[in-house]
Amino acid sequence: MTKLRITTTDDPATPIAEYCDPGQIAAALGAVGVDYGRWEASADLPADAGQDEVLAAYAADVARLAERGYATVDVARMSLDPSAPGAAEQIAAARGKFLAEHTHADDEIRFFVEGAGAFYLHLGEQVHTVLCQQGDYLSVPAGTTHWFDMGSSPRFTAIRFFQSPDGWVGEFTGSDIATRFPSYDELAAS
């Protein structure tokens, strides 16, 4: 289930507000300049589907955003069994790339077409944590400090949109704020 959890930076354990209704999530995120919506994500993708297959399955959505100037499109896909040989190291490396707080010079747009993950948006003295699932569309404005947790057993496929090829490069803040917040696994279990 998609959930928005808002906390202060000083008290990550105690929510100020929580929303599960898509309309309420969209309104709360819209109030801070983040676009959220629910899109149809029903394509049956094979387990070994590559980027081209995923993009072809969602060609209409890709075209809709390309019209808005988001010409750089790729697919982030992760599905690893942590008990498989070498998987723990792969998961740790992949999680580590996204868990540190960072910004982008470009808007970061994700459309989750499979699985789930958590986006943490550091907005002033608050953190808006969005537990995203299949069908969620999230547009984070350029310069927004954030991080992403795919969990200890990652399973997600997200189409990512940017305006320029270098727009996806993260500029890390050096803050350890992400270490003080509940992980995706903790939030998904609650």
Lay out the secondary structure.
Blueprint: E1 3-8, E2 17-19, H1 22-30, E3 35-38, H2 51-57, H3 59-66, E4 72-79, H4 87-99, E5 102-104, E6 108-123, E7 126-133, E8 136-140, E9 145-149, E10 155-162, E11 170-172, H5 184-189
Antiparallel strand pairs: 1-2, 1-7, 3-8, 4-10, 5-11, 6-7, 6-8, 6-9, 6-10
Tell me about this structure:
There is one protein chain. This protein has 190 residues and is α+β, with helices and mostly antiparallel strands. Helices cover 23% and strands 36% of the residues. It contains five helices and eleven strands, in the order ββαβααβαβββββββα. It has helices at 22-30, 51-57, 59-66, 87-99, 184-189, and strands at 3-8, 17-19, 35-38, 72-79, 102-104, 108-123, 126-133, 136-140, 145-149, 155-162, 170-172. The protein is globular.
- Put simply, the count of helices is 5
Instruction: Please give the largest β-sheet.
Output: 9 strands, antiparallel
Question: Helix fraction?
Answer: 10-25%
Give the helix/strand class: alpha+beta
Quick check: average pLDDT? Answer: 92
According to DSSP, the number of beta strands is: 11
Series of secondary-structure elements, N-terminal to C-terminal: EEHEHHEHEEEEEEEH
Low-pLDDT parts are none
Radius of gyration: 16 Å
What is the general shape? Answer: globular
Could you tell me how far the N terminus lies from the C terminus, measured between alpha carbons in angstroms? 11 Å
What proportion of the residues form beta strands (DSSP E)?
35-45%
